[in-house]
Amino acid sequence: MNLLKKIWLALCLSIIFCSSSSFSKEEQEDILYIDAGIFNLDSTIPPPPISSSFEYKLEIEFMKSRIAKLSDAQKDLAIKDAVNESAGFFSDTLTGFDINKLPKTKSLFDKVKYNAGYEGKAFKNYFKTKRPYQVDPDIQACVAPKPSNLDRSYPSGHTTMGYAMGVVLANLIPEKAKEIMERSRLYGENRINCGAHFPSDVSGGQVLGTLVAKELLKNNEFQLLMKASKEELTSAGLTH
């Protein structure tokens, strides 16, 4: 290899290395801040009702009755929440909260979503329960399900994420904690209204999401991201 080719190769490698290393941890979404195996699959959340149980049958009847009584506004919100898997669902609770105009806060919640999703999938794959619309033809999902959604009902992933985000956001904007957690609750309840989850799926997601958030809040690196988000939210007049 002549000298010119060596110089050219070295320059290309340098550009590739600089480009790949230019993405800071703050910009990465797929970082786990929770120690692997910290959540025992057998003892972290209660198991869902078995399909032959009276409780399971009650859940199905409850869902059919509830969905039949939903107003158009409730149906619309269930669909809206089903397709919104970001902290943006808090915008109707917090005046002026636009996650896309808050880059540091968006980055923080992208990481919350990833960590909640990672833990949620582990439990979904462990329990492997059917969705409501898989066991009763009278229950229809408000949004067309993907094949990957099947047999992955417990716990609710949306609810896990929604509660993890709610706890983190409530720590960032403590003066609005009650409203934030109420919105997280409704976000989870809308999974029932959507026909996508049993009530027990939502309950499991509430517990797991809260535990995920508590672990994140203890992580030193995550605390630095929290500080940056807090400063951004304060500058935007969303907290003090």
Q: Would you kindly provide a written description of the structure presented here, covering whatever features stand out?
A:
With 240 residues, the chain is an all-alpha fold. The protein has a single domain (53-235), classed as Vanadium-containing Chloroperoxidase, domain 1, CATH 1.20.144. The chain is built from nine helices and no strands. Helix 4 crosses helix 9. The longest helix has 25 residues, at 103-127. The termini are far apart.
The gyration radius over C-alpha positions equals 21 Å
CATH topology: Vanadium-containing Chloroperoxidase, domain 1
Structural class: mainly alpha
* Oligomeric assembly: single chain
- CATH architecture descriptor: Up-down Bundle
- Characterize the overall form: globular
Could you estimate the helical fraction of the residues in percent? 55-70%
Percentage beta strand? under 5%
Distance N to C terminus: 62 Å
Major beta-sheet overview:
none
The CATH homologous superfamily is termed: Phosphatidic acid phosphatase type 2/haloperoxidase
What is the succession of H and E elements?
HHHHHHHHH
Regions with little confidence, pLDDT below 50 for 5+ residues? 12-24
Arithmetic mean of pLDDT: 92
